[in-house]
Structure formats: structure tokens, C-alpha cells
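Researcher: Here's my situation. A collaborator sent me these components and asked whether they could plausibly form a single complex. I don't have experimental data yet, so a predicted model of the whole assembly would be a useful starting point for our discussion.
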Amino acid sequence: MDIKHYNQKPVRNAKFITAPNVLKAKVGVGGLSDTILDRAQKLLENHTEDFRPLAEIYIKQMKEGIDAAKNLGQPTASEEHIARILFPCVQLKANGGMFHYPLITRIAERFVQFMEVVEKLDEETLEIAAAFHTTIKIVVASQIKGDGGEQGESLVEELNGACMRYFEKHKDEIATKG
Amino acid sequence: MGYNLQNIQVLLVEDNQPMMNLIKGILLSFGVGNVITALDGDEGFKEFCLFNPDLVITDWMMAPCDGLTLSRKIRTDPKSPNKYVPIILMTGFSEKQRVISARDEGVTEFLVKPFNTRDLYRRLYKIIEAPRQYVSTPEYFGPDRRRKRKDYYDGPKRRSTDIQGDDDMYSDANPGDIDGIDFR
């Protein structure tokens, strides 16, 4: 008798497969040298692709998402409405840092984290979304590359402050949900 | 002696043209011989069937067909020429629940944007040197989702092929690792 599964038939019938490691057979051993990695990193740091046309598309989409939720005239937890604001912001977060705008990544990341917690759009959350949107728009329009220095720090602090005030005001509601 | 990537073919699926140019440039400077490109998951799957590349690197959020759908098609569509191909999913999301949903669609590695060249290389290295087993159940087909970092050997490295200074790849001290998906 096979005692592996006592006297029962396994329910899940998982089959484990070791696939041939084609890549390893093709590339050999030893990894990539620091010289190659440094050269690739330089390419990333010195490229001249213009981020602004792309950023403006996402900024516009984010604004349209905010306006669409506002036009409902009532709070919503609809995934579709949240996604229309959140997804362009995720794109700004993802792309900013790779196109010399790490401040956009930092600001957009704060908004993504805010939305992951509130998961609801109402007058107050939309005001916060609008504040993030306006700030990102200013950073792009003013071409504030890099971390933005003291000005960048102060913008992030302002937005963080707005989020913290929201959480403080709604702490009972958020605690219940958690 | 190092990797020779000249003989490998990578499918890069990205709807954002400047980002595609950038990643393609990085791959070429790594020495990758051929980078095939596509602008969304549908086009990506067509190219995948046509060229049967050795690796797929795809963005998540694309329209009309996103990176998760592409991953699922590669793993399960009868037309797929290689359902075992490693897939790296790139995204701006890093939240646990979203990472888990990506893992459940058969993604091999997860790469959070923005990233640097060493982040990308780390995923590539892991795919080459520590490939996952595949699991086939009635509900799921894809890389084993249960791989933990403790599976790795963490003693001293003595082989000439070991990369010095890359011990952090196998460190246990990575709170971001969910069941084998590293999303640093």
C-alpha cells in the first residue's frame, strides 16, 4: 500500500515539473561583469527620452478620473472609478523615476499608498487626489528633475500632511475596516 | 568568463514607447542578441508564438490586453509554443495583494518600476541560476509559488562561477519576498 497519503487519494493532484533550463544552457556561466552593468546603468542615467509628453497623458487621464468621480455627486467605492484615478498615477510613479523625475515617483507613490488604504472616493478623498494631481502637474510643467531639493521635500510634506489629517479625522472608520 | 547573451532572444512587451526604447537599450547593452518588441499582450502573444523567445519581459498595465492576460495565455493557451518560458512582469504596483494576483497568473519574477539595471539583472540571474519548478494542478499551471529564500544555499561561495558581491541576492533578510516573488 502507498502510505504517502495514508490510505487516501490525494485531492489536489499537483504535478511538479522540472523544465529544461534552456537559458542556462545558452548563456553559460559567470554572470555579467560590473563593467557591463555600469555601462547599462549609465545608459539609463544619461538617456534623453522626453518624459513630458507621456506624463501629460497620464496627468490628463488622472484629471478625467477625478472629474468623473466628482460628477457622480455622491461617494463611490466603484473599482472602475478608483482605477481611472489610480492607474494613471501608478504609471506616473513607475515612469517618473526612470525618466529623471524621481520626485514624481515619490509624490505618486504617496497617493497610491493613500488610495490603497481608503479605497473610497468622496469629497474629501477627491480633494486630496486633486492636490496630488496639481502638484504632479506643476513638477512636470516646471521640469523639476531630480528630488527637487528643499522645494520637493516641502511639496511631499504638504501632501503627506493632508493624508495624515484625513486619516486622523476618519480613524474610527478606518480602524473598524482594518 | 561571463554570460554570453548573444544567443538569446527576449520578447519585450511594453505599451509606452520611450520606456520600451529604454529597456531594449539596457538589454542590448547586457549583450542580448535579439530583442523582439510588442505594444500590448495580444501583439505580444502573436510574437511569442512566432519567435518562441527564451524570456518574456512584460509590462502589467496595457490595453487592450494586459501583462497578466499575456502571462496566462503563455502558460495555458494550446497555441503557446513554450509554456515554461520565464516571465518577468514589470509594474508600478508593489502592494502585496496585487503581487499575489500576478503570481497566480504564472509570472516568474516581479519587477517594480522604477528600477535600475541591477534590479533587472538580479531577476535575470535568478531565472538562469535558480529556476523554479513548475506546478500543474487543475486550477493552476505555472512556476511553483512556494519557493522560499531558505531553499538557497547560504554558505560561503567557492566556485569560480560565483559572482562576488552578489550575496544579497540570496539573503533571507528581504521582507519584500512573498513566497518567492522578490519585488524589491
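Model: Some features of this prediction you could bring to your collaborator: Helices of chain B lie at 17-30, 41-51, 67-76, 96-103, 117-129. Residues 5-182 of chain B form a domain with the Rossmann fold fold (CATH 3.40.50.2300).
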